[in-house]
Each structure stands twice: as C-alpha cells, then as structure tokens.
Design goal:
- Helices cover 75% and strands 0% of the residues.
- It has a domain of 93 residues.
- By secondary structure, the chain is mostly helical.
- The longest helix has 54 residues.
C-alpha cells in the first residue's frame, strides 16, 4: 500500500475524459507556441529584409526624381544667354547625377541616397522659381552718365 492510502488520504488521479474543451486547450497552447516561434525567428528576418527593400525603393525614387527633373528642364523658357547658361549648368549636373545613379545605384548607401534626395529637392525648388521667371543670375546695367560727368569734371578742373 501507498503511504497516502495508509494515512487515510485518498489518492486522486488526473484521468479525465477527452472532450472538446481539452482539445481546444491543447490547440490553443500549440497555437501560442507557434506564434512565439514566429515572433522570435521570422519577424526579425522580415524586418531586416524590409530595411533592404526600403533602401532599394529609395534608390529607385532618387533615379525617378532625377529623370523627372531632367524632363521638366526642357519646359523652362529663357530670355537670354545668362538664363540659358543657368539652366544648362543644372542640366549638366542632373545628367552627371543620372549617370552616377545608373552606374552605382545598387552600391549607394543610405547616407548617399539622403544627400542626393536633399540636393534634388533643392534643384526642384530652383526649377519652380525658374518657371516663375526668377533666375539667380541677373544682368546688371551700369549707368555711365554719372561716371562720364565725373571724369569730365576732373578733366576740366
């Protein structure tokens, strides 16, 4: 005999009939274990891959922005050679950006993409100004009349 039976305490058994609640509890327990494994193993890998995809998307967006800026440069009307030179300078810069991004797009780091995006945003603002007729280089006109008068006065005196 058992020591429990000798002491007068009944021995209980955990035997119970399997019913739908038992199956539900076991299924829920298994689901929790699978979800925990998913969180610890799969989610970090997906987050790391998403970061790589974000960089690739940003690289492609920079390339698309360069193309859009280059295309919109052709719509800018210039009145003189100074304005045409200003537009030509930016066009050459954007062409160089485009060649570089096409050749090294997959090697661009996140910092380089941010720097390119910042520069392209500045050029976009400049282009909006050009469309409104606001160019940075202005031809200044010098009024020679006061200078000539001053020289004549010095010569006469």
């Amino acid at each position: 005999m058992n020591t429990n039976e000798q002491a007068g305490t009944p021995q209980y058994s955990c035997k119970r009939r399997a019913d739908y609640m038992t199956y539900f509890a076991v299924g829920l327990f298994a689901l929790i274990i699978v979800f925990q494994l998913y969180l610890t193993l799969i989610v970090p890998i997906q987050l790391r891959n998403r970061g790589m995809f974000e960089l690739q998307v940003a690289q492609q967006e920079v390339a698309n922005q360069i193309d859009a800026l280059r295309k919109s440069l052709s719509k800018i009307e210039t009145k003189d050679n100074l304005q045409a030179g200003e537009v030509s300078l930016v066009r050459n810069i954007l062409d160089n950006f485009a060649y570089h991004v096409r050749d090294y797009q997959n090697e661009l780091t996140r910092e380089q993409v941010v720097a390119l995006k910042t520069a392209l945003d500045r050029y976009e603002v400049i282009q909006y100004g050009w469309m409104d007729g606001e160019f940075y280089i202005q031809r200044e006109k010098i009024d020679y009349a006061p200078l000539l008068k001053a020289i004549e006065d010095k010569i006469e005196n």
